[in-house]
Specification:
Layout: E1 2-4, H1 10-19, H2 23-28, E2 31-34, H3 38-47, E3 53-56, E4 67-72, E5 81-86, E6 89-98, E7 101-108, H4 111-117, E8 128-131, H5 133-149, E9 151-160, E10 170-173, E11 176-178, E12 188-190, E13 193-194, H6 195-204, E14 208-209, E15 213-214, H7 215-221, H8 224-232, H9 237-251, H10 256-259, E16 260-267
Parallel strand pairs: 1-2, 1-4, 2-3, 4-9, 9-13
Antiparallel strand pairs: 5-6, 5-8, 6-7, 9-16, 10-11, 10-12, 14-16, 15-16
Length: 277
């Protein structure tokens, strides 16, 4: 199992603790954390004390399968490219500086990028395109491992299902919207993932793809409500209220429930994957 971009390590810590309750699975599995930030690795290592966990910056040590890659808000953190299409000509957005200020401008896109964009049916008819070129390069490494070892990749991220003419690039600082060109290096720059394009890329790479579902659908199918009701039996009133607030944030359609989507691409003879039907 490989977590992509573990952040502060909180999810990995909970997963390892949960896996230990299933000794047969835990004993035969290998756990990798794919992280390139030395700063975050230090934070993760303070939180996760388990000799079965291995930190990696590539996938060379992932040699056995099936292998499951998973990432929560991983894909949206990788830089994207934006293109304007005008009279069948493609122009890429760039940024530059002038007198201590940053401004954007467009110039003719590379022929190789234009040619690549035209191969995606999900991008046809758009006059503004967001294309995760670097993200797909990351996926290529993962797809190669899945194709060789079997397994799959589970991605949970905020995004949309149908391709649309929309600039989704955004900057967040202290949980609030920030001007994209302000507070550089002090704010989190992300974008909404085009799951329609993501699915098409996996299919082009000869992986199967389950129907894309909302986080609400996925978590409820995986039994989050039943699990919460079991936990409540051992909780006091304050703990129950805290759990219900967390459940509301995860599942409500006006919060994360519908905004976040879940996709699973895989190579396997089996097709009965939990959480998607």
């Amino acid at each position: 199992m490989v977590e992509l971009g573990p952040g502060d390590g909180s999810m990995a810590k909970i997963l390892i603790r949960t896996f230990k309750r299933f000794p047969k699975f835990y004993s035969c599995a290998n756990f990798f954390l794919y992280e390139k930030s030395e700063f975050l690795i230090k934070i993760q290592k303070k939180k996760i004390k388990d000799n079965k966990v291995i930190w990696v910056k590539n996938f060379k040590k992932v040699k056995n399968g099936p292998v499951i890659f998973f990432g929560n808000e991983f894909f949206d953190a990788i830089p994207i490219k934006q293109f304007l299409v005008h009279k069948s000509h493609y122009f890429e957005k760039y940024f530059n500086t002038k007198k201590n200020s940053i401004y954007e401008f467009f110039k003719k896109a590379k022929n190789s990028d234009e040619k690549k964009l035209k191969t995606f049916k999900s991008l046809e008819g758009l006059n503004f395109i967001e294309y995760p070129k670097l993200g797909f390069k990351e996926l290529d490494k993962i797809i190669k491992k899945i194709s060789l070892l079997t397994g799959g990749i589970l991605l949970i991220d905020y995004g949309y299902l149908r391709s649309q003419n929309m600039n989704t690039l955004q900057s967040i600082k202290k949980h609030k919207r920030n001007n994209l060109l302000k507070n550089i290096f002090k704010a989190d720059i992300t974008y909404l993932v085009n799951f329609n394009l993501l699915s098409e890329y996996f299919l082009k790479s000869h992986l199967k793809v389950k129907k894309i579902v909302t986080q609400k659908f996925f978590l409820e199918k995986m039994g989050i409500v039943e699990r919460a009701n079991i936990l409540k039996r051992e909780m006091n009133k304050i703990q129950v209220n805290n759990l219900e607030r967390r459940m509301y944030r995860l599942l409500d359609i006006n919060m994360m429930g519908n905004l976040f989507k879940v996709i699973f691409a895989f190579k396997s003879k089996k097709n009965d994957i939990l959480g998607f039907d």
